Structures are given as C-alpha cells and as structure tokens.
Amino acid sequence: MGATFELAILVVAAGRGSRAGSGVPKQYRLLGGKPLLARTLSTFLKAAPQARVLPVIHPDDLEAYRKALAYLDKADLARLLPPSHGGETRQDSVRLGLEALAQQGQPEIVLIHDGARPFSSADLIARAGMAARTHGAAVPGLELTDTVKQIDSSGRIVATPPREALRSVQTPQAFAFDLILAAHRKAAQAGQNGLTDDAAIAEWAGHHVHVFEGEPENMKITSAEDFSRAEAKLLRELPDVRIGQGFDVHAFGSGDHVWLGGVKIAHDQALLGHSDADVLGHAITDAILGAIGDGDIGSHFPPSDPQWRGAASSIFLEAAMKKLRERGGMLAHIDATLICERPKIGPHREAIRARIAEIAGISIDRVALKATTSERLGFTGREEGIAALAIATVRLPLGKI
Ligand code: MG
Predict the structure, then answer these.
(1) Which terminal CB of the chain, N or C, has fewer other CB atoms within 10 Å?
(2) Residue 327 contacts by C-beta under 8 Å, 6 or more apart in sequence?
(3) Centroid of ligand 1 to alpha carbon of 122 (angstroms)
(4) CB of 68 within 8 A of CB of 38?
(5) C-alpha 392 to ligand 1 mean position (Å)
(6) Over pLDDT 70: what percentage of the chain?
C-alpha cells in the first residue's frame, strides 16, 4: 500500500476500436504527429499537477503504450502510475483500474476519463474535482441543440422528451473514490454489466449524480472525420506558417525493388545509396527540415556514419517530425513529385500516400504525390535514376518574446 493521495485520474484506454481507419487502436493513432492517448495523458498531467494518473490499457497494446510514453515530458511521466490492464468491457476496465488505485493507496477523489478525449480544459478538470467534493458523484453535461426523439423498433417516434431536461454527458466523470469503487464492486457481483458510463453505475447503486457544465471542445475522437477535425483545430492554434522544399536523386543499380515513401515496390533495378535509398522519403525529410531551418538530412544522418547503412528512411522522416514537434509545431501538408520513366507510380500512389501519412502522423488528405517522366530526356529519361521534389508546410507557435 503506497502513500495516500487526494486526487487520482483514471484514463480508460483499453478499447479495441480501430474505427478511425488505420490498423492500430484509435487511442494510439497519431493525431497531429502525437498518439491520441499521449495527448490526453499530457492534458491531465499538466492540468492537475497534484494528481496521480493511472491509465487502463489493453494487454496487447503494451508496445504501443510504451511508444506513446516517449511523447510525454519527463516531469509529467514521474506522476504517471504503472498502467493496469483492462477487462472485457469498459465497465470491467474501469473497475480493474479502480482496484489498482485502491492498491496504490486510496485517493479521496477519482476522475474517470475517456482516453480518446484530449481537449479537456484545465477549468473543466478543476470543476470536475470540485463537483466530486461537493456532490460525491458528478458528470459534465451539455445542453442539447437538437430535439431528441425516442423511437420504437420499427423506427416510429413514440416520445419527444423535453429538451430542457436533457443533457449529453461527457468525461471526466467525478466521484468520491469509495463511493464509485463500492458501486462498481456491487454491479460486478450482481452481474450488472450493461451500463455504459460510470454515472449509470452510481445511479444503479442508488446515488444521486449531479451534472456540471461540460465543454463542446471536449469531444471524443472516434471516427476518421473526428481525427481530421481535431487535427484542423490543433493546426489553427499555430499561427506561424512556414514552407520548406526538398530535392533528392538516387541512381539505379542492380536489384529487384525500390523503396519509395516507405513502400517497397518490385522493380528490375534498385536505387543505390547508403540507407535504403528512398529518394522520396529523403526529399520529404529535407522539406520538413527546411521549413524549420534545421540543416538537412546529410547533416543529421551523415552518410559517413555506419549506423545508417541500409537504414529504413522512415527513421529520418520520424526524426524530422520529432524536431518539428520539439518546437511545438505540426506538419500541415506535404506535396511531392517523383520524376522517373519506371516504375510506374500510379498503381502505388495511394499506398505511398497512406504510408507517408502514417509515418508523419497526419491525415492522408494532407499528403499529395504526383509523378511525371522527363520525356526520355536527361538521366531520368535514360532510366539512370529517380529524382524527387517535395514541399512541406509546417505550422509553429509564435516565437517566445
Ligand atoms: Mg538521398
């Protein structure tokens, strides 16, 4: 049993949902170059510097979780408790997280929060803590702008509840720790497992749950559209727009494939180079470094250094993204052109765009790729090599005065 502490925050991130489109669970998908869960954890660690934060994760996600932690500030990491493993349902996951907190030394108050809501303000988090102290159980809610209809199984409206009396409810949901732990234990013992939020569990256990003011910005990010909207919101907050350009050439030699934008493409020749010779990846990396005025790919990854021999060029792009992130910036857009007779790029265009978007952690609609020949003229026309051009638009915070 550890020392007692006042405020704990349980961040529930054990879901398997990959509704947002990419293969990884959505809480680990990059949002503006940072994993969604890292954004949420960082929001709470910064807003509540006195709190301990305990994430609940899926056991299959340990590696993704470990990677996400690399995006947090060192000082914040110290207040992050080791993650507990979730259960079959969200309700199980929360109960297991509460039991883990009980083992760590019971807090007075616990806020239970969705890992997929990164935009809670410090005010909202403070209001949640106060509401739990005042009422024992409280949740943030928003008034509805749409009229709500209750329907039957045939889709026919059976009731129109008065809108004034309805609230749509968010997280963090806030509770006296003993109250919500007891309610969860009681529900589990009773086999009551169909309750969709923690307020419902407190209600089921016979407690009054109050509603305090939520925030429209405190959205849950679930679909690919949500990711795009959240990305646009983050970009709007960065007023210093900069553009960088990159250019690269690699010569053909013997081989049976080329790497272009992180995608392996079968071909009757290979590109020669110290790394994997991904000419497109190199041009894009230089464009990003150019936009932040931070040297070029050769100065950061000198060809003379044996550690880059055969290296996957995604490493260089990830490193440029890290430099951008460390300045508080985000990548807004990439536009690239490949110049070659062969291989034909068209059939691979979407795969390459998707891979670049994945490495850079931005939406695919922010990555453009074009291809052209040089009409059989020059070295590209003679199929001696491939050239690539790239432009990157980045957004940065205004410099500190
Ligand atoms: Mg190169």
Answers:
(1) C
(2) 292, 396, 397
(3) 45
(4) yes
(5) 17
(6) 97
Please tell me the distance between residue 282's alpha carbon and the centre of ligand 1 in angstroms.
Answer: 5
pLDDT higher than 90, residue 48: yes
Q: Which two tokens stand for residue 26?
A: 């959505």
- Residues 155-175 have pLDDT tens digits of 999 999 999 999 999 999 999
Distance CA 296, CA 282 (A): 10
Question: How far, in Å, from the CA of 277 to the mean position of ligand 1?
Answer: 6
Structure token digits, residue 59: 């056991």
- Interval between CA 286 and ligand 1 midpoint (Å): 9
CA–centroid distance, residue 306 to ligand 1 (Å): 15
- Ligand 1 centroid distance, CA of 341 (Å): 19
Local confidence band at 134 (pLDDT 50, 70, 90 cut-offs): very high
> What is the torsional sign of CA 168, 173, 179, 180?
positive
Task: Take residue 184 and report the two structure tokens written for it.
Answer: 């969860």
21 pLDDT band, cuts 50/70/90, is low
Q: For residues 5 and 287, what is the distance between their CA atoms, to the nearest angstrom?
A: 48
**Per-residue pLDDT for 255 more than 90?**
yes
* Of 26, 45, 17, nearest in space to 120 by CA: 45
**For all residues of the chain together, what is the average pLDDT?**
94
